[in-house]
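HUMAN: Please help interpret these C-alpha cells:
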Amino acid sequence: MKIVADENIPLLHNFFGDVGEIDTYPGRQLTSENVKSADILLVRSVTQVNEALLAGSRVKFVGTCTIGTDHIDTDYLQKNGITFSSAPGCNANSVVEYVISTLSVLSEFRYIDFSDLSVGVVGCGNVGSRVVSTLRRLGAKVLAYDPLIDQTDMASFEDVLKSDVISLHTPLTTDGPYPTYHLFNESVLAQLSEQQILINSGRGAVVDGSALKRKLKSEPGFTAVLDVWETEPNIDPELARLVAIGTPHIAGYSLDGKIGGTEMIYQALCRHLGLPARHKAAQFIASPPLSKMYFTSEAELSWSMHTAIRAIYDVRHDHYALRRTLGGNEEQRVEAFDRLRKEYRARREFSNIKVLLKNTDSSMHTMFKALGFNVKSA
C-alpha cells in the first residue's frame, strides 16, 4: 500500500510505517505526479486537495492532520468515493494558549486584567468555543458570535465589535449566507477604536490585509495580532512590521496538538482499512523540558500567572523569528516563512506542566486550573 504525505506531519513514520510504504514531499509542492500511484494521501493545511491533484490517481483515503477543511474539495472526494477524515479540535488548546500568551505579553505595555476584560469571539467551533470557556473561567466577560450556531447566549456581531479584544476563529468561506472572506473589511475595521485589540489566529483572508494596513498607518495606536495572513506564504512585509505581534501561522503548532492530529488520522485510517490501531501518541512523545513550577504564599497572583504562561510559551519568540525574515526578497521571505513552520520547536501545552502551590490561597489554585495547568498542593 502506497502512502503519500506532507513531510511536516509529526511522527508520520511512527504511526503509519507499518501500514504502507511512505513517500514524503513538501506540502505546498505536492503534485498530481507525486500522488497518482498513491492509495492514501495525508496532508496538512497548505496542500490544496482537489480534482487537479487527484484526477487519475488511485487514492481512496485522504486525511488532513489539521482541524480546517477549506483546503479540501470535499464534494469532489464524496462524488469519487474517496473517504475523508480531518482532526477537529486537535490543536484547540494550542490556539487558546496562543491567545493567552498574546494577552499576557500585551499586558506589559497596556492594562490588561482578565477580570476586567471584555472579549468578543467570532466563530465558536472547536477552537472558538474553547477560547470562550477558558477566558470565562479566567474571569473575562466574553461575547460569542457564530451565526451557524443556534444558541440563545450568542451575541450580535455589532455587540462583539465593542469588546476590548476581538479574537477570530472562523473558517474561510466565500459563499452561503454568512461568508467570512474579508469579514473584517474597511467598513468593519473603521468601527474599531485605537483602544481595542484584534487577534486573528483563524484564517488569513477573514481580515482584509490591505484595509488593516491602511488602518494601522492612520491609527498607529490600534493593536493588531496576526498569526495568519491573506497571501501565505508570501506575506506582506509592510503589514508584518505594523502589527503589534506577527507570527508565521503557528498558533496551533504545539507538539501536543500536531501529534494529536496525526493520531486522529491514524485512527481514522485504521477504521477505514479494518486494522487495529496499535499506536498511541504517549508511546512516542517525550517529557517537556520544563515539567514543574513551584510557587509559595509569597507569590502574587498576577505575577505568578504571567510568569508561568511565558515560561511555557512566550509568543514574542515567534514574533521576532518572523520579523528577522522580512528583510529579504520575495523568494527568500517565502522560503523563510515555510522554514519557520517546518523547523518549529517542540512547544508543549500547559497541561503537561505540574504547578506546585504551597500555602497559597484558593484564587491561585482556581486561576492556574483555569489556564489548564496540572495544579497540585505542595
The first strand starts at residue 2 and ends at 6. The chain has a mean pLDDT of 96. The radius of gyration is 21 Å. The CA atoms of residues 79 and 243 lie 43 Å apart.
